[in-house]
Amino acid sequence: MYFELKENKPHGTKDDPFSTYHIENAGRSFQIPVHWHDEFEIIYVRSGFLAVSISGESYIGKTGDAFVVSPGNLHLMGSQTGTVDYYTFLFPLKYISFRTDDMLDEKLLEPLNSGHLMICPRVKDTAKELCEQLIEIYEAKKDESESKITTQVRTKIILLQFILEMWKKGFVIENDTSGRNTVEKEMVSYIQQNFTGKISLREFGEQFHLSEKYISRYFKEHFHITLSQYVTYLRLEHAKQLLQDTDIPVTDVAMQSGYQNVSYFIRSFQKAYAVSPLKYRKNNYSR
Fold first, then answer.
1. N or C: which end of the chain has fewer CB within 10 A?
2. Residue 268 above 70 pLDDT?
3. Which residues form the HTH araC/xylS-type domain (predicted)?
4. How far apart are CA 248 and CA 243, in angstroms?
5. Across all residues in the chain, what is the average pLDDT?
6. What is the mean pLDDT of residues 41-56?
7. Is the Cβ–Cβ distance between 228 and 204 less than 8 Å?
8. 169-187, pLDDT tens digit by residue?
9. Per residue in 217-247, pLDDT tens?
10. What is the mean pLDDT of residues 131-139?
């Protein structure tokens, strides 16, 4: 299985908290494992088919479809073939707030941010034009063809138009605490806090008062990935970060990422990213 998105990282910057990620034709099957964040997210399928799961509900997105992930909701994306082109747009809702304690903030943006309201996950092709405009801004930002102030003003106008469109079409609905996936989020948090050590099915089951046999099936059914695959993903992503940000030897990278066998770590890294740890570090430094 091939993993490729950089989760557990800050999205955007203080000056520009709006982030765009573009995933195109990975060439083989992949899954972005289950995760959540406090930002609002729009997922837009530009071509191909994308499997999306949001708060336990599964969808297949096709060209022109859009999905909304409200803050705090668990979600994952993937493709059996990798032949998909899609974008994700992430931003904190305060990014489009006027911060004046007016009706927009009090009755819509703050309830969306706190989870009392949510936007229906699947909005199909109703947002296609607005998403294409966000892509246009993304390309302009890469080319630095317009000022940062101009880019932010244009972006905020489009995002407010998006929220307005969702409101007008009745996609803004009441939410309850069950939609926040409390138990599943606790499971993911537990793994994220302990992945560099040994996580056994027995200990994991005891932590959540589930049998060892059941916990394995539960995890697979809810997250579409095995517990061991998820741990491997976190370890390899952590290793990538260490290779990028430090000069420590590969042996230490392996150990700090939860691998006791360096040779196994190198094989796992090569299999996941089609490049050795040393070459990955070299390529990263050369950019």
1. C
2. yes
3. 185-283
4. 8
5. 86
6. 92
7. no
8. 999 998 865 445 677 888 8
9. 888 887 878 888 889 989 998 999 999 889 9
10. 95
Phi, psi (deg, nearest 5) at residue 4? -150, -5
181-285 CATH, one of 2.60.120.1520, 1.10.10.60, 3.30.930.10, 3.40.50.300: 1.10.10.60
- Please tell me the distance from the alpha carbon of residue 103 to that of residue 110, in angstroms, as a whole number: 10
HSE-CB for 211 with a 13 A CA cutoff: 3
Most distant CA pair in the chain: distance in Å? 59
Checking 195-199 for CB contacts under 8 A at 24+ apart, the result is: 195/231, 195/234, 195/235, 195/238, 195/258, 196/235, 196/238, 196/256, 196/257, 196/258, 197/258, 199/227, 199/231
Sequence ranges of the domains in the chain: 19-176, 181-285
Query: Hey, what are 190's tokens?
Result: 């537990």
In terms of C-beta distances under 8 Å and separation of at least 24 residues, what long-range contacts does 247-256 make, across chains too?
250/277, 250/278, 253/277, 256/196
What tokens were used for 153?
Answer: 């003003």
Nearest to 123 by CA among 74, 58, 170: 170
